[in-house]
Task: inverse folding
């Protein structure tokens, strides 16, 4: 750097060049002493020091005591504190307590002057104070832990362990954890130690040594000496502080939070940070308790918990009532700092379990990311950030006057005049500004915490509407807790009003009653509805139209979380994005069972989304069929490597080339409905290997058989989050009599030499959906080659005709509302389309319409027949897809709700239910006759 540029850079670093505001002296009583101490001060620096000294007795004392250091520090604003920190690190341990106090004076003085002059913004001020706190705690731990190590009181620890506190970590909580320390803040620490560093026999001695070190660390920071103090240190946020020592093992803390942790502790851990000592162990601990802090589901019950905490604090501190400035607590009072922090933290708790981006520590950062994610409107966020910064500056000036740990505004006119002078403001303007900000913060945050009491007023005739059903509600399982009942009583009038406003109120009430009766618990869901009333309308739509989806919701109510994610009604993301998202979710879980539960949560939410989109007409039945199939494929594709990895821990990696999962039936065809199970076969290639290589090696055949069973269990086992799908493996070679996993060699031999025609027909719908890609491609290439071989058309269609007759004899016709079984219905059309795929050259398409088109192009199916069968199949599939979503069973025209009937008519393009039935009968009968003619012509 040239001399001129160096001089310019040095000038930029001077505080005098960054002043944007100026305090004024409230009193000139100390100015003679002040002027003697800083003869070097002139211009704006003199005015700044004079205004500060004349309004703050505490800062006056610091200026006088640190005048010599201050002169050079003000000429190097950016470098002064790093120099203080470096000197501390290099200082001797035996003088550390005194050096820390000197450093504290200098940090306090420089940050105050940078703050009062406007040279630093709030985040720079709080960041500097927090950085010093981190360093102070680290150096105090090194000193006290080092003393215990040298005394031989921490078994196995050496001088090399001093820097990491011999496994002791100080978790910074509250404002220190967030890097937001206020000017005269205490520091909240939770001190833990990593018990795994010590042998079992040494645990008690190590624990005793670290407890003593923690106490001495706290004293080094906290005790008031002739040099002052460093930080008031509070260790009471640790688990159960009344009965636990000042330093707790991580294992004990983990067990406490898992079993007894409370909502306020969850909120506290939002800002927790490993600040000093064994940082790595501290970060691992915070990751371990992440599920305690960040719930997997949206946690709107946290709103009530936070509201209750606020009320208790107000009651305990006597801070209720209207806002008055005299003595108002800027932190805990109405409209104060804590209101903004609670508002931010509670919203983070609600959804941070689902969205890691929300897991930020700072209040301003929290509000910004909540806005970016759509949880807080931008105008509200901007106002709260502005008010938060203004509140914190007022808080700092209140504390600067006497270095008092207070948040209370003055109670006297002189007190307000002094505060205004230190702030460089007119007292009336300052009071008006503070009052307006407090009122606006209270208005913005209170409605979030406290429900509008007027919303619970019942309609005059509510008692006469469905009184017999409504009278049963208090006895339902969802109401077993008093808290659930309390929330629901606030919701009930609005729910009843919405039910009455629906197209068919009585029908809607009965449907809602069925949902409520099946709900096993209510607190979380009712809290969700209270915070998001629009979800009640969606629920009423669903339960009225689809009893099946209503039953699903009763047992899986947390899928409502997905509706609030912001993209619930966005276009379909496709199988690749589904797979990538689920893979990422599974990788974030370390425990195998949690991975399986994560797969279930993912599957249920997307399953629910598809159903809602279909009910609301956002997608067609054909699109829903594709989406259900892609969801199933993504689930299998993501789960397979997880199952393989878990299985390999005991039995070793898959021997040979691994295995592929082949989708059959509706999965293979890429066309599923809400109740479809998964037809799969597993094919492996040992490639000459005989055994697996693991702790418990297995020969190839039992290895892949057990691996396949592990996959089936991973998908079908009823975990805490339920199951995803049922799996059907009867389409494997030899059906239920064959092995659950088939070698590639055996599969090829069976299909070439032993398979029945129906098995080759089934292969027309096969496709690889999971497992080793190269092996899947090899299997599908073999399938294509096998099925492209020349076939005897008459023989194939004769067997198809015979199969059709056997199915009719075994299952009957099924009636007009059975869309799958019977003459001219889906199963018969599928059989004919599969025959078309088998008889025509080229890769056989799984799609029914394409297969029928191929049959027409090959010349054995009439084009008009092909078109009619394709159209009939599409209509039947749409009705099948809709019926499975509505009630999971066959439609009963005598019992079907009007809204459900309208839904089916929409899917089939009919104006009413009578037209639907009439057109359906004609289409099916025509299809049956066309199939008869096609098969008879072939036989002839």
Result:
């Amino acid at each position: 750097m040239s001399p001129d540029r160096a001089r310019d850079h040095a000038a930029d670093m001077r505080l005098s060049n960054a002043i944007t505001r100026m305090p004024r002296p409230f009193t000139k009583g100390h100015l003679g002493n002040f002027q003697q101490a800083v003869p070097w001060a002139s211009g704006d620096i003199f005015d700044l020091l004079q205004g500060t000294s004349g309004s703050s007795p505490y800062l006056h004392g610091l200026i006088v005591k640190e005048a010599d250091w201050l002169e050079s520090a003000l000429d190097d604003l950016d470098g002064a504190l790093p120099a203080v920190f470096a000197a501390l690190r290099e200082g001797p341990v035996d003088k550390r307590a005194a050096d820390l106090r000197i450093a504290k004076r200098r940090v306090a003085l420089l940050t105050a002057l940078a703050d009062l002059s406007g040279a630093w913004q709030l985040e720079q001020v709080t960041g500097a104070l927090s950085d010093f706190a981190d360093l102070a705690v680290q150096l105090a731990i090194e000193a006290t832990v080092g003393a215990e190590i040298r005394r031989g009181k921490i078994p196995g620890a050496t001088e090399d362990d001093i820097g990491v506190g011999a496994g002791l970590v100080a978790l910074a909580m509250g404002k220190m954890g967030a890097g937001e320390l206020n000017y005269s803040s205490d520091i909240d620490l939770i001190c833990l130690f990593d018990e795994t560093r010590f042998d079992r026999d040494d645990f008690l001695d190590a624990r005793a040594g670290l407890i003593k070190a923690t106490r001495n660390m706290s004293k080094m920071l906290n005790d008031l000496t002739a040099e002052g103090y460093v930080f008031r240190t509070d260790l009471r946020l640790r688990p159960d502080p009344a009965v636990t020592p000042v330093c707790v093992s991580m294992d004990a803390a983990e067990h406490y939070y898992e079993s007894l942790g409370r909502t306020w502790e969850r909120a506290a851990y939002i800002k927790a940070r490993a600040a000093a000592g064994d940082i790595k162990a501290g970060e691992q601990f915070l990751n371990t308790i992440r599920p305690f802090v960040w719930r997997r589901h949206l946690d709107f019950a946290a709103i009530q918990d936070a509201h209750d905490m606020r009320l208790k604090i107000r009651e305990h501190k006597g801070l209720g009532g209207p806002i008055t400035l005299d003595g108002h607590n800027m932190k805990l009072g109405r409209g104060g700092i804590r209101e903004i922090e609670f508002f931010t933290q509670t919203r983070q708790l609600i959804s941070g379990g689902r969205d890691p981006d929300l897991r930020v520590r700072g209040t301003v950062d929290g509000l910004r990311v909540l806005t970016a994610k759509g949880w807080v409107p931008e105008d509200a966020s901007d106002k709260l950030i502005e008010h938060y910064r203004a509140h914190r500056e007022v808080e700092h000036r209140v504390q600067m006057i006497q270095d008092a740990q207070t948040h209370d505004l003055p109670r006297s006119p002189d007190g307000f005049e002094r505060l205004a002078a230190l702030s460089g403001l007119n007292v009336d303007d300052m009071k008006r500004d503070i009052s307006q900000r407090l009122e606006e913060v209270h208005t913005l945050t209170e409605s979030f915490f406290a429900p509008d009491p007027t919303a619970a007023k019942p309609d005059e005739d509510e008692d006469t509407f469905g009184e017999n059903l409504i009278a049963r509600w208090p006895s339902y399982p969802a109401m077993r807790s008093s808290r659930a009942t309390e929330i629901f009583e606030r919701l009930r009038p609005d729910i009843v009003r919405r039910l009455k406003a629906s197209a068919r109120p009585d029908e809607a009430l009965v449907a809602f009653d069925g949902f409520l009766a099946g709900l096993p618990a209510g607190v979380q869901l009712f809290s969700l509805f209270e915070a998001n009333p629009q979800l009640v309308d969606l629920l009423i739509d669903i339960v009225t139209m689809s009893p099946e989806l209503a039953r699903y919701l009763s047992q899986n109510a947390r899928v409502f979380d997905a509706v609030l994610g912001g993209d619930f009604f966005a276009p379909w993301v496709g199988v690749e994005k589904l797979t990538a998202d689920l893979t990422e979710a599974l990788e974030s879980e370390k425990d195998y069972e949690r991975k399986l539960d994560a797969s279930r949560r993912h599957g249920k939410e997307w399953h629910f989304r598809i159903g809602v989109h279909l009910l609301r007409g956002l997608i067609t039945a054909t699109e829903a069929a594709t989406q259900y199939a892609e969801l199933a494929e993504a689930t299998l594709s993501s789960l397979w490597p997880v199952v393989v990895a878990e299985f390999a821990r005991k039995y070793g990696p898959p021997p040979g080339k691994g295995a592929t999962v082949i989708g059959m039936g509706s999965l293979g065809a890429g066309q599923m409905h809400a109740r479809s199970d998964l037809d799969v076969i597993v094919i492996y290639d040992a490639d000459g290997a005989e055994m697996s290589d693991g702790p418990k090696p297995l020969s190839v055949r039992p290895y892949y058989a057990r691996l396949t069973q592990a996959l089936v269990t991973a998908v079908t086992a009823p975990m805490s989050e339920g199951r995803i799908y049922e799996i059907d493996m009867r389409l494997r070679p030899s059906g239920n009599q064959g092995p659950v996993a088939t070698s590639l060699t055996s599969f090829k031999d069976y299909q070439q030499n032993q398979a029945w025609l129906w098995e080759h027909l089934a292969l027309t719908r096969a496709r690889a959906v999971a497992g080793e890609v190269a092996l899947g491609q090899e299997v599908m290439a073999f399938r294509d080659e096998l099925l492209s071989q020349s076939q005897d058309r008459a023989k194939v269609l004769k067997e198809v005709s015979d199969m059709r007759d056997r199915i009719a004899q075994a299952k009957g016709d099924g009636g007009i509302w059975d869309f799958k079984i019977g003459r001219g219905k889906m199963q018969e059309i599928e059989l004919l389309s599969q025959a078309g795929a088998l008889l025509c050259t080229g890769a056989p398409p799984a799609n029914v319409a394409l297969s029928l088109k191929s049959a027409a192009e090959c010349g054995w199916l009439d084009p008009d027949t092909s078109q009619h069968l394709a159209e009939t199949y599409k209509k039947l599939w749409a009705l099948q897809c809709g019926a499975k979503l509505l009630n999971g069973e066959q439609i009963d025209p005598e019992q079907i709700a009007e809204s459900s009937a309208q839904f089916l008519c929409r899917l089939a393009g009919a104006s009413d239910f009578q037209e639907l039935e009439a057109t359906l009968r004609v289409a099916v009968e025509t299809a049956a006759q066309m199939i008869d003619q096609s098969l008879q012509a072939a036989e002839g």
Observations:
- Strands lie at 168-172, 187-193, 233-234, 247-249, 273-277, 658-664, 678-685, 727-728, 741-743, 767-771.
- The chain has 40 helices and ten strands.
- The chain has five domains: 11-120, 156-287, 301-425, 546-787, 793-939.
- Confidence is low (pLDDT under 50) at residues 1-11, 452-462.
